[in-house]
Amino acid sequence: MSSASPPVDRRRWLALAVVMTASFMDLVDVTIVNIAMPSIQRDIGASFSVLQWLSEGYALAFAIGLITGGRLGDIYGRKKMFLLGMGGFTLASMLCGVVSDPQLLVAARVLQGLMAAVMVPQVLSIIHVTFPAHERGKVFGMFGAIVGLGAVSGPLLGALLTQWNLFGLEWRPIFLINLPVGIAGLILGRRFIIESKAPQAMRLDLVGVALASAGLLMLLFPLTQGREHDWPLWGFVSMAGAVPVLAAFVAYERYKSRKDGSPLVELSLFRVKSFAAGIGVQLIFGISSGIFFLVWTLYMQIGLGWSALRAGLTGIPFSVAVSVAAGVSVQQLVPRFGRKVLQAGALVMAAGVLTYIWEADRYGAGIASWQMALPLTVMGLGMGLIVAPITDAVLSEVPREHAGSASGLINTTQQLGNALGLGLVSVAFFSVVDAADPRRTAVADIFADAFTHAMWWVAGGLALLFVLMFLLPKRPRNEQSAAGEAEAPADAAKVPAAIG
């Protein structure tokens, strides 16, 4: 490609270091917050709904902005949008680290998510135009390794920074650590990243973004806040009103497609049965993951009273198992067994969930970290069998000319599922906590009951996942599509979405 840097130009490796650092920063920020939530709650008096919004607000803003962020780079320049996103993400991180008001902290997290949606989509595009074709395979392999490292190190880094209480700042260093990294990235990125644009970029669909945002907020806000207000009437009215708003979004997308061919969502993709089923798989998988990761943290730290460091170390078997299984699934299992690997992943993960439920019931407040290692390892193996090959399975029958739009929609859907799962924690977990009497039941037992109740929701989601996977193609594609080079890292790029 003419816009790629020549192989002899060593600056391209510095550009790669910058964009990979940005990806690592985003991935860590997704996973680092959960482990610090109890410390945040104690320090600024945050309610449980605020804790939900700290993750949910980021995920929702990131999901809604992803496709638009990619188009902004195509239209105005990927380097320009990357630097804008990184600068905004760094500023939002600073705000997260200095505010003391819970609502302002949520607003700063939403801003972080929006800025990540501007920054992250540019990374693979910058790599594509910076490196010649014969180097991209190696570069995408490095990118996948960084993705895995970010997913694994986020919870542990969050635990260490919280436990160390640097300068008496409690949880705040988990955000403030982004400042020197972001500033260095801006300086180096401005110097070493080359500018590029798409020759024929799609137009922005701001009306579509507004309708999708309004519909999802009308659904998620009362779902998250309703519990603290004893489920008021306005909440049910808002959730019911989300249906016509989202229907209007679909109608407008059809109109936009006919008008200029630049809808936010390419609805014609859903005529491909395997893709429509795959979007359902991503949504349910995101919901199940969103529920698990939040309630798991609350169970260990608030229910069992464990420190952030102990909770972070307890999760290491899970992270390692995900990484190992992900590599094996793509390289060895999927080429031989196809769709059955994904279905086996759902069943294995469900087995881990059921084992966890049994252990939480059996050992109660006396459960130890080593006793959690078995269910977490089994769950991690199951998740690893799913997250790496799922994108290729969903894209297998999508027309080549729509591969880019389909890939973006897959990642967006999983982020939306994650946000929905975080919202459903109010029903799956906190409804049990609210119904218990702390004067008669120990806090550890209350949270253990709530955890097992929420885990049954996760198990149900995995069962539905297994059934939906029958609609996926039996075998992955045998040949790369025209957009194959851009799709290659997509499998790795979605690992943190699942883990976060």
Automatic annotation (TrEMBL):
It is found in: Cell membrane. Residues 481-500 are annotated as: Disordered. Keywords: Antibiotic resistance, Cell membrane, Membrane, Transmembrane, Transmembrane helix, Transport. Residues 482-500 have a biased composition (Low complexity). Residues 15-477 form the Major facilitator superfamily (MFS) profile domain. The keyword NADP does not apply. The keyword Cell wall biogenesis/degradation does not apply. It is a multi-pass membrane protein. The chain crosses the membrane at residues 12-37, 49-69, 81-100, 106-127, 139-162, 174-194, 206-225, 231-252, 272-296, 308-329, 341-358, 370-395, 416-433, 453-472. PANTHER family: ACTINORHODIN TRANSPORTER-RELATED, MAJOR FACILITATOR SUPERFAMILY MULTIDRUG TRANSPORTER MFSC. This is MFS transporter. It comes from Streptomyces stramineus.
